[in-house]
């Protein structure tokens, strides 16, 4: 088992979970600044937004998780702020980050969809990296797996997924790999295939949610609504539906504008 403490400095303990999340934020910010500059957007706006988005995302990710796991925290409120132990819900973080980013965009009159296309590859990259924090904390794993099945994975993953005398599916890894695939698709789309503002953002909503829906069904620690409904699957289905509708609507608008421009030039 991997020690969740990366470094101890006297009474101060630095957790691997925090180190991994910090790396995710750093690389995501660097990439977002690069993409913004390529898109003709002042990269300083990215730094200004990050100052708002990161704390908003962390707070909302924690609140989202705690709300659905209130029975676990109601008798020990100190654990509500113990984010280094895990328990950050990605969908909650997306909500918080979106609200903070939307407020900044509106205040500075920036192009919302264009900026969304620039920022969203950083989000999915951060999600891919952040899942390894779940690995360190032995959370977000799936149901029991056979030793034969786990023999296909590197030893360090097998050992970390051996919990209480039982192997478990490394669903954190499945989602991390899926997110990396989505990241590559979005980057190619941003620089090679983009036809209209919002295309990359809406594609993220569909692709990420598609993978999350199926992988969530394998997990044993899902946030539940009642006894049968997995919250993440409901949110994923909603995001897929909204993403498909928006993608079709804006693609149609783009075609209409292109046709109008061609007619005007003839």
UniProtKB/TrEMBL annotation:
Q: Which UniProt keywords apply?
A: Cell membrane, Membrane, Transferase, Transmembrane, Transmembrane helix
Matching entries from InterPro entries are given as: Lgt
Q: Which Pfam families does UniProt cross-reference here?
A: LGT
Location within or outside the cell: Cell membrane
User: What biological-process terms (Gene Ontology) are attached?
Assistant: lipoprotein biosynthetic process
Q: Which family does it belong to?
A: Belongs to the Lgt family.
Name it: Phosphatidylglycerol--prolipoprotein diacylglyceryl transferase
Query: What residues form the membrane-spanning segments?
Result: 14-34, 46-68, 88-105, 112-130, 176-193, 200-219, 231-251
Taxonomy, superkingdom: Bacteria
Q: EC number(s)?
A: 2.5.1.145
- Give the HAMAP family listed for this entry: Lgt
Pathway it acts in? Protein modification; lipoprotein biosynthesis (diacylglyceryl transfer)
Which residues does the record give as a 1,2-diacyl-sn-glycero-3-phospho-(1'-sn-glycerol) binding sites? Answer: 131
Entry annotated with the keyword Oxidoreductase:
no
How is it placed in the membrane, per its record?
Multi-pass membrane protein
PANTHER family according to UniProt: PHOSPHATIDYLGLYCEROL--PROLIPOPROTEIN DIACYLGLYCERYL TRANSFERASE, PROLIPOPROTEIN DIACYLGLYCERYL TRANSFERASE
